Amino acid sequence: MTETFANTALPVRTERLTLRKATEADTEAVRSYRQHSDVSMWMPSDGLDADAFRSRFCEPAKLDGKLVIERDGAIIGDIMVAIADGWAQDEVRERAQNVQAELGWCLAPSAQGRGFALEAMTEVLRICFTDLGLRRVTAGCFADNEPSWRLMERLHMRRENHTVRESLHRTLGWLDGFEYALLADEWAERTATTDPQ
User: The N-acetyltransferase domain covers which part of the protein (predicted)?
Assistant: First the structure.
């Protein structure tokens, strides 16, 4: 298995944040904010079972593609970059290997509403398209999770799919889902035309 961030000089620093590879030692810090009801509401696991959370978080394949977001030395969030193959016909399958990634993110409640997710994910897009050489990234969420899909739109990702009552939520039942995507050439065009601030 190729290490996800092998071609990325980590940690990387943005204006206010540090992004670095997650380690097993980060498990409890991440679980502490993932248990918060405003966060766990939208996450695959509520994080209440410490052993189950540790097992999932520390699974080598998942840990390999996970970053943590630090502000002033404290972990305030985590990011998933799950690299995958694109769909391809048999004769060109090898050209579609490891060319895209699914992205996911989670931010501690105390860090929300201050632009940290946008800042971190802007850097993650740079890593995906520049360092990792990916051609496409995707992200999905429950349609009711407005902060998540609003962030995708601020990142200039395109809504490609709206599923109807396709995603089962632990307390809300069957909900609609959104899928967003961004291509490397779209990202390159946007960053080339963005005025420095």
Answer: 17-185
**What does pTM read for this prediction?**
0.94
- The helix (run of H) or strand (run of E) holding residue 31 is helix 27-34
CATH of domain 12-139: 3.40.630.30
Structure tokens at 17: 């944040």
What is the domain partition of the chain in residue ranges? 12-139
Q: How far is residue 109 from each of residues 54, 115, 116, 128, measured CA to CA in Å?
A: 21, 12, 11, 26
| pLDDT 10s digits, 17-74 | 999 999 999 999 999 999 999 999 999 988 899 999 999 999 998 899 999 999 999 9
Determine the Cα–Cα distance for residues 111 and 120; give it in Å rounded to an integer.
Answer: 12
pLDDT digits (tens, 9 = 90+) for 180-192: 999 999 999 999 8
* Number of neighbouring beta carbons within 10 Å of residue 31: 17
From CA 157, how far away is CA 192, in angstroms rounded? 16
Rounded Cα distance between 105 and 21, Å, is: 14
pLDDT at 1 over 80: no
Is residue 113 predicted with pLDDT exceeding 80? Answer: yes
The residues with which 77 forms a beta bridge, in sequence order, are: 69, 107
